[in-house]
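Whether sequence alone determines local backbone shape is best considered at the level of individual chains. The sequence in question and its structure tokens are set out directly beneath this paragraph.

***
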Amino acid sequence: MDKKLAKYFEKYLAVIIATVVLSSILFFGMEFYKAVTLMLEFVVLIEVVRMILDFIEKKTLQIRFVMDIFIIFLTRDVVINVTQPVINQNKVVFLIFVIFVFFLFRILSMYFSPTNTPKNINKNSPLE
């Protein structure tokens, strides 16, 4: 039983830490629109904690986590700006454009990732 519990906490550590932080903020009585904003920030917090834990574990920082954080943060910002009484259309369009650029970078980072390159290829043999 002890191993199952340890494995569970190891697997969901980022979610547990982010939940504790969000719960403590909500415990102190925020208004509803602030709570919605905080819930959107909760997703960003999960990604940041996952990135930090992955960095501590592997001693390397994957560009995938950084891109995910930027995309989620910008998406959160778009949702917040769209739900305001006065919508700044230029800001929203610019943020959507930046999200599109980060999606392109994310796709390129997966395509050109060193882990996706084949190993042990004989340079003299034709590729199949």
Q: What stands out?
A: The chain has five helices and no strands. The helical segments are 2-11, 13-27, 32-58, 63-82, 89-111. The CA atoms of residues 54 and 61 lie 7 Å apart. The chain has a mean pLDDT of 77.
